[in-house]
Amino acid sequence: MIQSDKATAFAKLHVRGMPVLLYNAWDAGSAKAIEAAGAKAIATGSWSVAAAQGYGDGEDIPLDLALAIVARITASVEVPLTVDFEGGYSDDDNILIDNIGRLLDRGAIGINFEDRVVKGSGLYDIDRQASRIAAIRGAAEKRRVPLFINARTDLFLGRGGEPSSEIGAALDRAKAYAAAGASGFFIPGLTDEGLIGRIVEGSPLPVNVMVTDGVPSNERLASLGVARISYGPIPYAEAMQTLQKVATGIHS
């Protein structure tokens, strides 16, 4: 399939109540293993990609290296690849557009794009983040790729507040991001099934939940209408634990 067809096929995997499962990869080898297991698409996780190269999360891994990893993955698998692109490596729209172009040049058909100020503090205000999403959509359209923009909100991740008090704000963001051209709405850190259900009901976009402690089962998430379930850093962490356990048995 050509890139635009892969993007279209990937978007069609997002069905409310029949979520696409994305067991996140961190390099070409892990992507090939996940594809061989029957995955319909590959998704990277920024934490895992960075950790596998000895970097911390939060755009610490150099962009050129991150893009090289993307290129190796797309050259190694046939299924669509969506990339956790954090904040796009810039708060300048012109640089952001250029970075998206470079990512598309390497074969990616989707991104996670977060509203956290990666190299600052807090979240972008809703209008500013919507304008960033619109810039990305425009850049992708110029290249005739229907890029799947999975708009992530960090309202529920590491902020220490009461999640129920953020539901209205999250839905406001979902609507603004949809109007700006987003394709999906990602809510990492939200674990309460009642609150997840409220997001699903109120969001104009298909909703992505990340597996973590306290998140309902995949079956329950499907019944709530979730359209995408991703595993974040879990696959990398579990693989490294297994590697260390086996190595310990050899060296001890």
What this model shows, in words?
- With 252 residues, this protein is α/β, with parallel strands linked by helices.
- It contains 10 helices and 8 strands.
- The radius of gyration is 17 Å and the shape is globular.
- The outline comes out as globular
What is the number of strand segments?
8
Low-confidence stretches: none
Q: Based on helices, strands and strand pairing, what is the structural class? A: alpha/beta
Number of helices: 10
The secondary-structure element order is: HEHEHHEHEHEHEHEHEH
Strand % is 5-15%
Evaluate the radius of gyration: 17 Å
Task: Provide a concise account of the structure shown.
It contains ten helices and eight strands. With 252 residues, the chain is α/β, with parallel strands linked by helices.
Topology:
Layout: H1 3-12, E1 20-22, H2 28-36, E2 42-43, H3 46-52, H4 63-76, E3 81-84, H5 93-105, E4 110-114, H6 126-142, E5 148-152, H7 167-180, E6 184-186, H8 193-202, E7 207-210, H9 218-224, E8 228-230, H10 234-251
Parallel strand pairs: 1-8, 2-3, 3-4, 4-5, 5-6, 6-7, 7-8
Helix pairs in contact: 2-4, 5-6, 6-7
